[in-house]
């Protein structure tokens, strides 16, 4: 504004000398005023200018929308009409004090919001800054300085509401975190009891039922033998179930470090170490297998579960055949484990990786419903994913993806 007013004074002086020069200066002034008017009208924040008596001189469209008041009613009105009466005296004095500082700008309210008043009587929070300039005025051959103030106003109702909601959410989150920590502590106590206090009676049940079968077999009828066999089988299955739950807990909590793992060597070691895999003898690898980045011990457990399932769930009289190969998937490596087993209905492709979900398979190898959940947990903890392609009676192709090592 100072430039514009200096230009006005310059225009008045020059016009007395040269008509063409006067026209040029008037044109420059008109263009400058148009640019300034466009900036003020298009501003997203409210812009309100006032004179030294705190009477409104400029009231832009954003201010009209903010306060619900038209500019033609506000021009010439005291600025304190835009705030509740209880704040008016203090605010007016703040403007006077600011004018005496000589500073060009300052944030109003000192690091806090001020309160505005809409036309409908609603009070709302405003973030405001104020600036001051001295402009030159000319009339009747006299030139003098006049002080003008301009306030930039922003309605922060939405932001403060979000901050309040965020604060409430944070408090709820802290409470839930404390509740979760308590639940985890209780779960640790429970799992300790599960692994120690509950397994001992189960093993005793299995042991004593087996002893009875061995020592009194000639004295028991078929029905009594069946009862003891059921007790032995059920207690053994429950013991295995508890063991799998403990393994799942271990996988969930263990630190997972990553290294490049040689899949070929890992599978050879698993084949030699696991009796069921040795007996199967039908595990074929399409070498070379690509290396992956994983926790070797955790990966061995996941692959072991998949291989055991591959040779376990086959139709009666069918020799298990398992094929393993790898393929690149951008930065990852996908590992395939294909079998000639009984297959899995499409409806269960997702469910079988959940806790306590298992196929309706009877017999000695019906499983606990945790093995594939262990695989999913382990692979995801190493930054990978797992899935299956299968159809009933046509075998299965399980796969998992992990970051690739070297080609």
Main beta-sheet annotation = 6 strands, antiparallel
Number of helical segments?
Answer: 11
Which consecutive residue ranges, at least 5 long each, have pLDDT under 50? none
Q: Which structural class is indicated by helix and strand composition?
A: alpha+beta
The CATH superfamily of the largest domain is identified as Histidine kinase-like ATPase, C-terminal domain
The value of Rg in angstroms is 41 Å
**Number of DSSP strands?**
13
Brief summary:
This protein has 407 residues and is an alpha+beta fold. It has helices spanning 2-15, 19-42, 61-67, 71-74, 85-101, 157-215, 222-253, 263-273, 275-280, 296-312, 371-381, and strands at residues 46-51, 56-59, 105-107, 114-117, 123-139, 142-155, 259-261, 283-285, 292-294, 322-329, 332-339, 385-390, 396-403. The strands form three sheets. Strands 1, 2, 3, 4, 5 and 6 form a six-stranded antiparallel sheet that branches. Strands 8-10-11-13-12 form a five-stranded mixed sheet, with helices on one face. The chain has a two-stranded antiparallel ribbon with strand order 7-9.
């Amino acid at each position: 504004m100072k430039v514009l007013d200096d230009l006005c004074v310059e225009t008045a002086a020059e016009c007395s000398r040269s008509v063409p020069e006067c026209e040029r200066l008037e044109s420059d002034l008109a263009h400058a005023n148009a640019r300034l008017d466009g900036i003020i009208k298009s501003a997203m924040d409210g812009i309100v200018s006032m004179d030294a008596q705190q009477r409104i001189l400029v009231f832009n469209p954003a201010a009209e929308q903010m306060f619900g008041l038209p500019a033609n009613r506000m021009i010439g009105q005291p600025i304190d009409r835009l705030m509740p009466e209880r704040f008016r005296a203090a605010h007016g004095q703040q403007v006077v004090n600011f004018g005496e500082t000589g500073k060009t700008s300052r944030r109003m309210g000192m690091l806090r919001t001020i309160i505005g008043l809409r036309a409908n009587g609603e009070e709302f929070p405003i973030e405001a800054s104020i600036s001051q300039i001295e402009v030159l005025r000319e009339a009747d051959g006299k030139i003098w300085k006049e002080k003008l103030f301009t306030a930039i106003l922003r309605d922060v109702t939405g932001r403060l509401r979000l901050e309040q909601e965020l604060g409430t959410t944070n408090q709820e989150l802290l409470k839930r975190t404390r509740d979760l920590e308590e639940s985890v502590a209780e779960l640790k106590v429970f799992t300790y009891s599960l692994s120690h206090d509950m397994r001992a009676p189960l093993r005793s049940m299995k042991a004593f039922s087996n002893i009875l079968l061995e020592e009194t077999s000639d004295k028991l009828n078929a029905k009594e033998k069946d009862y003891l066999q059921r007790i032995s089988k059920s207690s053994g299955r429950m013991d295995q179930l508890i063991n799998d739950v403990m393994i799942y807990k271990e996988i969930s909590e263990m630190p997972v470090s990553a290294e490049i793992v040689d899949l070929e060597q890992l599978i050879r070691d698993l084949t030699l170490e696991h009796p069921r895999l040795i007996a199967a003898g039908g595990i074929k690898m399409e070498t070379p297998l690509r290396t992956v980045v994983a926790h070797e011990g955790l990966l061995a457990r996941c692959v072991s579960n998949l291989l055991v399932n591959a040779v376990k769930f086959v139709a009666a009289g069918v020799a298990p055949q398992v094929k393993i190969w790898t393929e690149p998937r951008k930065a990852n490596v996908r590992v395939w484990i294909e079998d000639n087993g009984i297959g899995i209905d499409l409806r269960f492709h997702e469910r079988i990786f959940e806790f306590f979900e298992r196929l309706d398979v009877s017999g000695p190898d019906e499983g606990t419903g945790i093995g594939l959940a262990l695989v999913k947990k382990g692979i995801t903890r190493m930054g990978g994913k797992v899935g299956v392609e299968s159809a009933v009676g046509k075998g299965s192709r399980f796969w998992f993806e992990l970051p690739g090592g070297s080609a």
